């Protein structure tokens, strides 16, 4: 579960009780057919925070992001920037400033890097992220700007997906399993990028399997088990709670 991650530049968040709530989820339920996947999930993400959701595969972490985004019908309360968004269609949620990087990356393989990035732009959203900034953070994308996305390595495709989402200038970006299947070197680069995103004032909700990365990057953590939140706290608090780690995280 370990991977070396360089310490990213981070803007330290305010304490949770002081940081204004950007995303609030209360008593969230979701179903796949008759299967009750999310069973009353509640959490919050403050402005400028990196918050991670941890847990074993199949506990509902990815479903939580999909329910927030509108890809899975939610039951419960979801507020983004103080406004209810539960049940809105995904493109409406995205236009309100919530970015989503799915686990499967979902690039357009026949389109070039340039074209993939262009699809992420949203008119009238400001210029927090430009092509120049994206290429400064990840020069390899500029080197391959006219290369079809399907030719890129898995790590390059992951970076392209994150950067394409950033082109829409989100206030919060949800990233699902960004380091899955990547080399240790690429894992470190993804970690650096996530830290840079937060340093620019964009909140991050991260679903991550690698405990080392979540502990390094996050201000707060939630652990899920059986469709519910079973732990909420800081990285230090989780490391001090061996019982939670053993029961809900260790394989």
UniProtKB/TrEMBL annotation:
Domain of life: Bacteria
Pfam families: ABC_tran (PF00005)
PROSITE patterns (UniProt xref): ABC_TRANSPORTER_1, ABC_TRANSPORTER_2
Residue ranges occupied by any ABC transporter domain in the UniProt entry: 23-251
InterPro entries linked: AAA+_ATPase, ABC_transporter-like_ATP-bd, ABC_transporter-like_CS, BCAA_Transport_ATP-bd_LivF, P-loop_NTPase
Alphabetically ordered keywords of this record: Amino-acid transport, ATP-binding, Nucleotide-binding, Transport
Gene Ontology molecular-function annotations: ATP binding
Family: Belongs to the ABC transporter superfamily.
Protein's recorded name: High-affinity branched-chain amino acid transport ATP-binding protein LivF
Organism ancestry: Bacteria, Pseudomonadati, Pseudomonadota, Alphaproteobacteria, Hyphomicrobiales
């Amino acid at each position: 579960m370990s991977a070396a991650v360089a310490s990213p530049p981070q803007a330290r968040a305010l304490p949770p009780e002081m940081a204004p709530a950007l995303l609030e989820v209360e008593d969230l339920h979701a179903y796949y057919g008759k299967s009750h996947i999310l069973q009353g999930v509640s959490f919050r993400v403050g402005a400028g925070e990196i918050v991670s959701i941890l847990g074993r595969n199949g506990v509902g972490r990815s479903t939580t992001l999909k329910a927030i985004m509108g890809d899975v019908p939610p039951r419960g309360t979801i507020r983004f920037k103080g406004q209810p968004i539960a049940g809105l269609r995904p493109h409406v949620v995205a236009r309100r400033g919530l970015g989503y990087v799915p686990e499967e990356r979902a690039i357009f393989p026949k389109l070039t890097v340039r074209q993939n990035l262009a699809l992420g732009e949203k008119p009238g959203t400001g210029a927090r992220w430009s092509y120049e900034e994206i290429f400064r953070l990840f020069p390899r994308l500029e080197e391959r700007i006219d290369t079809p996305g399907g030719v890129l390595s898995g790590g390059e495709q992951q970076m392209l997906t994150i950067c394409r989402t950033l082109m829409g200038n989100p206030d919060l970006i949800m990233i699902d399993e960004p380091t899955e299947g990547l080399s240790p070197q690429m894992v470190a680069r993804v970690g650096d990028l996530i830290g840079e995103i937060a340093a620019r004032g964009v909140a991050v909700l991260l679903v991550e399997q690698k405990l080392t990365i979540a502990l390094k990057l996050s201000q707060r953590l939630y652990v899920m088990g059986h469709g519910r939140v079973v732990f909420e706290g800081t990285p230090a608090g989780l490391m001090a709670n061996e019982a939670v780690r053993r029961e809900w995280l260790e394989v």
